[in-house]
Amino acid sequence: MAVPNVLLQHLLEADENQRVELAYALLDLDETGRNEIAQALLGSVDDGMSESERAELGAALDRSLAELAAGKGIPFDDAMAGLRARRLQRAALQYAGRGQGPPL
Fold first, then answer.
1. Where do the domains of the chain lie?
2. Which residues contact 25 (CB under 8 A, 6 or more apart)?
3. Burial of 11 (0-12, 13-18, 19+ CB in 10 A)
4. Cα 60 to Cα 6, 56, 98, distances in angstroms
5. How confident is the model at residue 2, as a pLDDT?
6. Please, is 41 exposed, middle or buried when counting C-beta atoms within 10 Å of its C-beta (0-12, 13-18, 19+)?
7. Higher local confidence (pLDDT), 90 or 30
8. What would the mean pLDDT of 56-85 be, rounded to a whole number?
9. Which residues, 6 or more positions from 95, have their beta carbon under 8 angstroms from its beta carbon?
């Protein structure tokens, strides 16, 4: 199940302090609270998800939060470095055919 692009875009545009604050806030929320935050971030955008898909996403988030609480996560800086590296790799592939490098 994919995360809606508009939500990913909001998260990528947030600075590190905002992402850390959001992560801690999500750790303290129940499913209803997370749904309210998702609704606020997404507004009236139709994410194309069915109720069962939303429930599956909620369950996946709960499992992820439980893993983090159990110390099974990776350091934030490592996670962000991996995401940035993948993003640069995709950009390099996209621009390779145009004879130019990715925008930095």
1. 5-73, 75-104
2. 37
3. middle
4. 19, 6, 39
5. 47
6. middle
7. 90
8. 86
9. 101, 102, 103
